[in-house]
Input
Amino acid sequence: MRSSYLFTSESVSEGHPDKVADQISDAIVDLFLGKDPEARIACETLTTTNLVVLAGEIRCKGVYENEQWLDGAEAEIEQAVRETVKRIGYEQDGFHWESFKFVNKLHGQSAHIAQGVDASGNKDEGAGDQGIMFGYATDETPELLPATLYYSHKILERMAADRHSGAAPFLEPDAKSQVTLRYEESTPVAATAIVVSTQHGKGYDQGDKEAELHAYVKRVVADVFPAHLLSDETVYHINPTGSFEIGGPDGDAGLTGRKIIVDTYGGAAPHGGGAFSGKDPTKVDRSAAYMARYLAKNIVAAKLATRCTIQLAYAIGVSEPLSLYVDTHETGTVGDDVLETAIGKIEALGRMTPRGIRMHLKLNKPIYARTAAYGHFGRTPEGDFFPWEKTDLTDALKSALANQAEGISS
Output
């Protein structure tokens, strides 16, 4: 790698139109999994001016059976959608949680997809689709997330908290951030540029009110960044286009799954292409990406590498992964092939089939709405939430490597 370089990542707030769509889709996933842990959900959301549309396929006991919605189910779905938008904070003329038009076009899952996914006879449950999934971890931050993405998230999380608490009443829900850091020997040493665009109340694009908004953003940055990364040479671009009063779905249409790099590693690692939100955990786009992050994070947490990328690949209807690939970017204490073998020897991990992943990480629960803003990774595991962020596999990894070194099959 180059010894000195600039790298940039971005984030978007919970009020960004695409993130509104993601949160609605995951609210539907949670609603259905709360009623049926074996539910199948693929929910896409469109948001635009005073309109929310759901589309996709479901199978869920107690909600949708025999190609029919059960009594009260559609009203419960609409309530979950409106509550999500209300929680985000949209009460504007062009997008208001109470008055937007709602259209539900969800329908039953294709029988041809279901037959490939469902277990039957001696056939284990297959993957819900083909695909490649990546996981990544780096020791740049304590959360083992790239620093550019981590601080991009933190800026917007703080601003959202201040908006909800009333500490920054001039803020509206839609916002974006971007952080550029200079790296020396793979270590972030300075923030060279910080971009923040935030929707705001009337008048905060001129005069003293604009100056108040700019000063507020700089205080937020100073609060969330380590002091050594900021200096007089850090360049700020705050609402660089000027006015940003019209925002959210009223300013731009939103769709589920359009912020996959924000959701993952900020461009510091590959992405297989599949989005996460709106999908139940039989969809390996989601569950196998969580497993890949879990494995990569535990390798770095165990100090077996300072950076790690893992790829898993699946075929639709096939249970076992087609491949497992480990790349520690020449930072590993052992060979990447040795780590690949060690992962396969960890009995506690089990098989990396769709069912095995769900069982190990306990994914068949309504835990997904929290993932749909500010990233799926680098979050604090708490109770049932974010189990893929745990570092409880480090001892098992070290034991498997020790057994390999001794020529013992664990």
About this structure: The chain has a mean pLDDT of 94.
